[in-house]
Design brief:
The strands form 2 sheets. Strands 1-5-6-7-8-9-10 form a 7-stranded parallel beta sheet. It has 16 helices and 10 strands. It has helices at residues 15-23, 46-50, 62-71, 105-108, 119-125, 127-130, 145-152, 154-162, 167-192, 213-219, 221-233, 250-256, 269-276, 288-291, 307-321, 341-354; strands at residues 37-40, 73-74, 80-84, 89-92, 135-140, 196-200, 237-241, 260-261, 281-284, 331-333. It has 360 residues and is α/β, with parallel strands linked by helices. Helix 13 links the parallel strand 8 (260-261) and strand 9 (281-284).
């Protein structure tokens, strides 16, 4: 897999400050790129170890990853996960779901007491890591539907959302989860000084959403809105990380108040930009991901993009999305894994010019 070659730019303000301008719906000095964020997924949350998705000063060692792969690891609800090297992620250990009916959750599910976690030690060990000039973005794994999947399996969780006999219990458990996540967000702000939450809850597959917009509005929007509103009250931003071909569900992200949603390139971003660009900040791809590599998927490409192609794509991108209309329809560059550093450099220089500034 090709990796980003991040370059350092001589910017007049920090990437963190520039990011905040966009989320405040103000004109930025330049168009941010992925490297302007710094992700935080601390090991203090057992989910991040169980998922082998740990971003902090002490990332997981290969020995720790191997242990999760062979022996598994329990998340903060006691669910055992196993890392699968072939897919680069963890799966719930199959065969023994905690729930077969959500109506039983109060008797079976034990919510963690996060105040028992050693926040002070985590703060001390991550002091340098969180002291950054980039947008510090805390990742919360296993959102609402994904958490239900971890307890019931996919089929059970999906059925629970539409089963009239289970809906009330689903509402109760999602409300309890939103309270838990809000307490975690408070701790993340207090301990690390985060700027943003990236909330992971995948709602779709390769070809379509897992459920209808009607179901999402009935079952997921209110608890999600509760988390988003809490973030906004605390002065931070909310990015919805929701994989799948979820074009039809964008109105739900908007109704919940999400500040941004990048989505995968399988979504029709141009259609979404035209339809919803003024209501949510969308992540939009450069075009190289799909046009240069028809088989491109999750950062794997069939050939290298040349510097000349990268420069042309960046110029076209800025010309299309960064004109006088930007404040009405702000966007962020979407996935650009593996593109040469000329893409980032050109995106910065061209957007500085368009936004009425001289190049830094």
């Amino acid at each position: 897999m090709a990796k980003d070659r991040i370059i350092n730019l001589d910017t007049p303000i920090s990437p963190r400050e520039n990011f905040r301008l966009i989320y405040q719906r103000k004109l930025p000095l330049w168009l941010p790129v992925q490297g302007d964020r710094k992700y935080l997924a601390p090991r203090i949350d057992p989910d991040n170890i169980a998922r082998c998705f740990c971003f902090e000063a002490q990332p997981l060692s290969q020995e720790e990853i191997d242990l999760v792969s062979t022996s598994g690891y329990k998340d903060k609800f006691g669910v055992s996960w196993e890392y699968v090297p072939q897919v680069g992620g963890s799966m719930v250990r199959p065969g023994d779901p905690l729930l077969d009916d959500v109506n039983h959750w109060e008797k079976i599910i034990s919510f963690p007491d996060i105040e028992m976690w050693d926040w002070e030690s985590s703060k001390a060990s991550n002091a340098d890591y969180s002291n950054t000039d980039r947008c510090l973005t805390a990742i919360i794994m296993n959102g609402l539907f994904e958490r239900l999947i971890s307890w019931m399996g996919f089929e059970g969780a999906a059925m629970a959302l539409i089963d009239e006999d289970q809906k009330d219990a689903v509402h109760r458990v999602f409300d309890a989860l939103s309270d838990l996540y809000n307490r975690m967000i408070d701790r993340y702000i207090q301990t690390y000084g985060i700027d943003q939450v990236s909330f992971h809850d995948d709602w779709g597959g390769q070809h379509a959403p897992f459920f209808s917009l009607t179901t999402v509005k009935e079952m997921l929007v209110e608890p999600l809105k509760k988390i988003v509103s809490h973030c906004h009250k605390r002065g931070i931003f909310f990015d919805m990380h929701s994989c799948g071909k979820n074009e039809a569900l964008v109105p739900a992200y908007i109704e919940a108040g999400c500040d941004s949603w990048s989505g995968q390139p399988i979504n029709n971003k141009e259609m979404l930009y035209q339809e919803y660009g003024g209501q949510i900040i969308l992540g939009v791809e450069s075009g190289l991901e799909l046009e240069a590599d028809p088989g491109w998927h999750n950062g794997i490409r069939t050939r290298e993009v040349t510097p000349e192609e990268a420069v042309a794509a960046a110029r076209n991108f800025v010309k299309k999305y960064c004109g006088a209309h930007y404040l009405q329809k702000p966007i962020l560059p979407g996935m650009y894994w593996g593109l040469p550093p000329e893409y980032t450099q050109t995106l910065y220089e061209e957007s500085r010019q368009v936004f009425g500034n001289t190049c830094g």
